[in-house]
From TrEMBL:
Keyword Transport: yes
Pfam families: ABC_tran, TOBE_2
The entry's keywords: ATP-binding, Nucleotide-binding, Transport
Family stated for the protein in its record: Belongs to the ABC transporter superfamily.
Source organism: Devosia yakushimensis
Protein name: ABC transporter ATP-binding protein
Gene3D superfamilies tied to this protein: P-loop containing nucleotide triphosphate hydrolases (3.40.50.300)
Keyword hit for Nucleus: no
GO MF terms held by the record: ATP binding
Residue ranges annotated for the ABC transporter domain, each copy included: 4-238
UniProt-listed InterPro entries: AAA+_ATPase, ABC_SmlMolc_Importer, ABC_transporter-like_ATP-bd, ABC_transporter-like_CS, Mo/tungstate-bd_C_term_dom, P-loop_NTPase, Transp-assoc_OB_typ2
Length: 338
């Protein structure tokens, strides 16, 4: 298992910073999501770790080995890592076994050992018995698992995944989430994956590095980013919720003139994040009017308009009439840091 350390890494394309001054440590055996909106620099960061891009400044280390720095850049094939591209990059004219065996052949490993290792890797991705199938005859999800097996077969302890669930339908995504979690458990590899989908990051990762405009906004566990977002960008990107104006004082926090339970610190006018699960309807409390009510299966996602004109989202068990006047209490809010 390998620790990956990026220190003050920047990557410029012309005058544009794709990645700016990124310092993160990805612990041994961690499963990290590089998360952020389109164009935030997450793919560039993955390519920097892989060695397909060279940093303009800063250093990248695997354990104590310098991989990239001002005067040095180790070639991708010498970094001893596995990467699964979004396109899967399989050889169409080879069968499944030959695709998976490819990196072992390139290393001159003997036939018997190759067969054994290919069988083990295919078993890990639930494709045992698919050895002789042509990759052209496989579904998108199966192709992705072949690409994953090809990456696992070398026994690498760093695995990089580029948008691993992007090309899969909803049901396959759920199945692949289980496979990735299982592979992480079985290999103990340090895994880094790129996603723009916050629900994927929450479901899969044990650490999230949230990026915007090439810069790290917050690094932490999914629970930390959900419960205690470092700024409004993270608060707005992760999970559902509403950002509202409030007044914080030493003796409590007021929203719409009423006391609410707020965590975090701040003084005077602040912004608070309120998750839907923290809002309760009642006979008294903050006044609001139903603006929207949408069926989601388990409940109704309801949006209220408050007297301030701000909107607040909550889940209700029943459909509420548009325009209905209601009251609510807020039993948890997070004061978004300055
Ligand atoms: N080879 C390149 N040449 C010039 N600009 C580039 C190059 N690669 C990336 N960029 C720019 O760097 C910025 C970050 O791009 P990057 O692909 O890393 O973002 P991303 O977060 O992965 O986006 P997406 O989710 O849309 O793939 C963008 O402004 C992009 O246009």
């Amino acid at each position: 298992m390998t620790i990956i350390t990026l220190d003050a890494v920047s990557k410029q394309f012309g005058s544009n910073f794709a990645v700016r001054d990124v310092s993160v440590t990805l612990p041994k055996g961690s499963f990290t999501a590089l998360l952020g909106p389109s164009g935030c620099g997450k793919t560039t960061l993955l390519r920097l770790i892989a060695g397909f891009e060279q940093p303009t400044s800063g250093t990248i280390q695997f354990d104590t080995r310098l991989m990239a720095g001002p005067t040095l850049s180790v070639a991708p094939e010498k970094r001893d890592l596995g990467i699964v591209f979004q396109s899967y990059a399989l050889w169409p004219h080879m069968d499944v076994a030959a695709n998976v065996a490819y990196p072992l052949r390139a290393r001159g490993i003997g036939r018997a050992e190759i067969e054994q290792r290919v069988a083990r890797a295919l078993d890990m991705v639930s494709l045992a018995g698919f050895e002789q199938r042509s990759v052209d005859a496989l579904s998108g999800g199966q192709r992705q698992r072949v690409a994953l097996a090809r990456c696992l077969v070398t026994g690498t302890d760093i695995i990089l995944l580029d948008e691993p669930l992007a090309n899969l339908d909803v049901h396959l995504r759920a199945a692949m989430l289980d496979i990735f979690a299982d592979i992480h458990r079985r290999t103990g590899a340090t895994i880094v994956f790129v996603t723009h989908d916050q629900s994927e990051a929450l479901a899969l990762a044990d650490r999230i590095v949230m990026l915007d405009h090439g810069q790290v906004q917050q690094t932490g566990t999914p629970q930390q980013l959900y419960a205690e977002p470092a700024n409004a960008t993270v608060a707005g990107f992760i999970g559902r919720g509403s950002i509202l104006a409030a007044q914080a004082a030493t003796d409590g926090t007021l929203l719409a003139g009423r006391p609410i339970n707020a965590r975090g610190t701040g003084k005077g006018p602040v912004q608070v994040l309120v998750r839907p699960e923290a809002v309760r309807l009642g006979d008294t409390g903050i006044a609001g009017q139903v603006a929207r009510c949408r069926y989601t299966g388990a409940s109704y996602e309801t949006v209220l308009t408050l007297a301030s004109g701000e909107t607040l989202m909550l889940d209700t068990p029943n459909r509420l009439d548009i325009g209905a006047a209601i009251h609510l209490t807020i039993n948890d809010a997070w004061i978004i840091p300055g």
